[in-house]
Amino acid sequence: MIESDQNVWRGGLTQDLSHVLMSEAQIQSRVAELGRALTQDYQEKDPLLVGILSGSFLFHADLVRNMNLAMAVDFMAVSSYGDRTSSSGVVRILKDLNSSIAGRHVIIIEDIVDTGLTLDYLVQNLQTRHPASLKVCALLDKKEARVRDVEVAYVGFHCPNEFVVGYGLDYRGRYRNLPFIGVLKPEVYRKAE
Ligand code: IMP
After folding, report:
1. What is the phi/psi pair of residue 177, to 5°?
2. Coil, strand, or helix at residue 48?
3. Which residue, of 16, 39, 89, 90, has the fewest CB within 10 Å?
4. Partner residues linked to 108 by β-bridges
5. Does ligand 1 lie within 6 Å of residue 181's CB atom?
6. Ligand 1 atom closest to Cα of 163?
7. Is any atom of ligand 1 closer than 6 Å to the C-beta of 14?
8. For residue range 174-189, what is the model confidence (pLDDT) as tens digits?
9. Is any atom of ligand 1 closer than 6 Å to the C-beta of 80?
């Protein structure tokens, strides 16, 4: 049984986790801080917050509610992992942006930067579309696993080199609905690989 601040999660979802890394309260407080920083840095810039689906959906939704300025949202879906726990480096765009970003101040919202391969591809791809500026805001930064050097301007938390789930992050499509972030027991994915 794993206890979060306000929730006690039993069985099913949390028996596969070894421990909680960031509680719901810690996440919400850090997301509010990031929202304030972005509000300050993007005044009068009408930024476009591009959420990378599906992992960033909760972070994106909470972050924009903590931004007090005119802005717009858009989403991209990419696939690089499939059902595995390590990046293949081959990124496919499953859903592209709905509109042009030429001349816009774009902020990519990512759940986690691991090897950096996905983000490196995304940054290069979006740069070719001539945004006025392009920055990255990631909830988690797993620096130790980095293969490609990508600049992450806004980071929520540094993350140990373990496979984490919850608050949008999944393993095989599960655990996204946990309001906290926890470490998945290695035997769960070793068993499946
Ligand atoms: P990268 O290309 O290795 O940086 O991986 C980026 C993507 O892989 C993230 O956007 C996540 O969707 C996924 N990912 C990387 N590490 C984890 C993890 O620990 N848990 C869940 N998903 C992860």
Report:
1. -85, 0
2. strand
3. 90
4. 50, 136
5. no
6. 19
7. no
8. 999 999 999 999 998 8
9. yes
Q: Which atom of ligand 1 is nearest to the CA of 113?
A: 4
Residue 84 scores a pLDDT above 90: no
Q: Is 137 helix (H, G, I), strand (E, B) or coil?
A: strand
* Atom in ligand 1 nearest the alpha carbon of residue 86: 3
Would you place residue 159 in the very low, low, confident or very high pLDDT band (cuts 50, 70, 90)? very high
> Residue for token digits 């995304």?
122
- Active-site residue, 114 included: yes
Distance between CA 75 and CA 68 in Å, rounded?
A: 20
Q: pLDDT by residue (tens digit) across 58-76? A: 999 999 999 999 999 999 9
Q: Is 169 in the pocket of ligand 1 (CB under 6 A)?
A: yes
Catalytic residue among 16, 114, 120, 141: 114
> Does residue 90 have a pLDDT over 70?
yes
What spacing in Å lies between the alpha carbon of 112 and ligand 1's midpoint?
A: 5
Q: Pairing state of beta strands 133-141 and 105-113?
A: parallel
CA of 36 to the centre of ligand 1 (A): 25
Could you tell me if 188 and 110 are in contact, meaning their C-beta atoms sit under 8 angstroms apart? no
* Predicted pLDDT of residue 86: 63
Other Cβ atoms within 10 Å of 146 Cβ, number: 18
Tell me which residue has tokens 């391969």: 117
